[in-house]
Amino acid sequence: MKQTHFCGSPDHRISRRGFLGAATGATALAADMTVLDVLSRPALAEDLKRQQKSVILLWLAGGASQFETWDPKPGWPTGGPFAKIPTNVPGTHISELLPEMSRRLHYTAIIRSLNTKIADHGGGYRLMDTGRRDEPGVEFPHLGAIIAQELAQPDSRIPDYVEMYTSTEGRRKGSAGFLSGRFNPMFLTESMIPENIRRLESISQIDHHDRAALRRLLANRFSRDLPSSAVGCHNAAYQRVRGLMASASLFDVEREPAAMRQHYGPTQFGEQCMIARRLVEAGVPFVKVARAWWDSHGQNFETHRELCADLDQVMSALLDDLEQRGMLENTLVISLAEFGRTPKINGSLGRDHFASAWSCTLSGCGIQGGALYGKTDEDGMTVVDGEMGAGDLFATIFTALDIDYEKEYMLGSRPIPIADFGAAPREAILA
After folding, report:
1. 268-281 and 300-324 helices, crossing angle to 10°
2. Using 50, 70 and 90 to split pLDDT, how confident is the model at 236?
3. Which of 351, 361, 359 is nearest to 316 (CA)?
4. Global pTM?
5. Average pLDDT of the chain?
6. Are 26 and 258 spatial neighbours (Cβ–Cβ below 8 Å)?
7. CB within 8 Å of 1: residues ≥ 6 apart
8. Among 1, 41, 40, 32, which residue's Cα sits nearest to residue 14?
9. How far apart are CA 353 and CA 265, in angstroms?
10. Nearest 10 degrees: CA dihedral of 228, 234, 238, 243?
């Protein structure tokens, strides 16, 4: 029988060999949240930041207008009332509603040439979260599930995929599709702190540990006598819950310095993005944060004046934060929606759904900062250069993360590439 000297205390969980091995493989440490304090040691923290790639998706729920954000057309009947402003990338202009981002565009590539064709909320959402059109009888995995499948540590005890929504957007949720249920997201819809992750006050710490030990003993006996994948999945899920309980502090924005909270701003979106940074720093591969509700069929300009102010402060603060921590080179920040808004301004001074010529951004990991890809015509009706579909965007994202976009998953006997058939990355966007 193998001898062990582990006493059961999280403080002693790392052996000397494991500790020394962490210098060349620090990402393994983030698989167990009970030892995150070790990452306060600078050498290990820096090694982790260099190795662990992750994604923060800023989901602009309802469809942000490209005219009021990344592809302004002032002076044209379709352009609206806002001016365009220069950025710190010579020759590139964005909407005046994004002044902070204009000073940080060296981190960011703008894609102005998405033509995805589906302009209803449900269909557009599924397309931009799976990278392909629906097929009968097939539930495709969403982007977060694919990233989690490819980047998560096998023995991770923390969530691999977290979605944070406002209540207005909570009805649309990601899915692992035909992948393992492990890669379904953990949803935080009404609260930024997961429910039921704290020990009940009626249970003492000693009883809590004793119950865990008894469960582990019974589970091990059951697994030995009746080995099956279902039993293994159950045991793994339980350990992940234990890891989540040990990591409750990650979801507490009060642990951030007041100056940092002020930098992100007082909004829910700002606090959620601060938590997203805390999660990816701890090793979570994919976090999605939604900012609702951009669906501006009426009063488009007032809506975007308010929402863009929040996006501008929060996105620029997030990029600053990641850069200052040495994390931006391994964290891909995406701003994306289900579609854009029409060039035509309707009778309610709004813009309607439009999926033929719209914009998104990629920042950080694997991206050529300051790149400007694609072009629309003068009134923003049509893509005239560099047209991209959802599959091409996914292929570009995967390549930025060093994931083979031609890799195939097997659904029964059917191979399904992780980026849609015929999709290809856009090398001009990649570093």
Report:
1. 30
2. low
3. 361
4. 0.83
5. 85
6. no
7. none
8. 32
9. 29
10. 80
Q: Name, in order, each residue with C-beta under 8 angstroms of 402's C-beta and a sequence gap of 6 or more.
A: 53, 366
Pairing of strands 54-59, 286-290: parallel
Residue 312: how many other CB atoms lie within 10 Å: 21
In a shared domain, residues 208 and 279: no
Amino acid, res. 254:
E
Per-residue tokens: 1 = 């029988």
Q: What are phi and psi of 361, to 5 degrees?
A: -135, 155
Number of H helices, E strands in the chain: 11, 16
Backbone phi, psi, residue 154, to 5°: -55, -35
311 in a structural domain? yes
Q: Is the pLDDT of residue 89 over 90?
A: yes
Which structural domain, as residue segments, surrounds residue 221?
196-251
Q: Which CATH number characterizes residue 70's domain?
A: 3.40.720.10
In the sheet that holds 358-364, the strands lie side by side as 186-188, 161-164, 286-290, 54-59, 331-336, 358-364, 108-114, 372-373
| Residue 113: strand, helix, or coil | strand
Structural element, H or E, at residue 223? helix 205-225
More confident position, 16 or 63: 63
Question: Are residues 189 and 204 both part of a single domain?
Answer: no
- Do residues 114 and 388 make contact, with C-beta atoms less than 8 angstroms apart? yes
State how far the Cα of 272 lies from the Cα of 288, in Å rounded to an integer: 9
Kindly report, residue by residue over 303-345, the tens digit of the pLDDT: 999 999 999 999 999 999 999 999 999 999 999 999 999 999 9
